[in-house]
Amino acid sequence: MATKTCCVCGRTAHGQQWWNRDKGYGLCLDCAAAWIMKHHDTAEFERSYGKAGVHWGKDNPALARLIVQISEEARKTPKPTFKNLPQLPQGIGPEFLHLLGITE
Ligand SMILES: [Zn+2]
Question: How much is the pTM?
Answer without folding.
Answer: 0.78
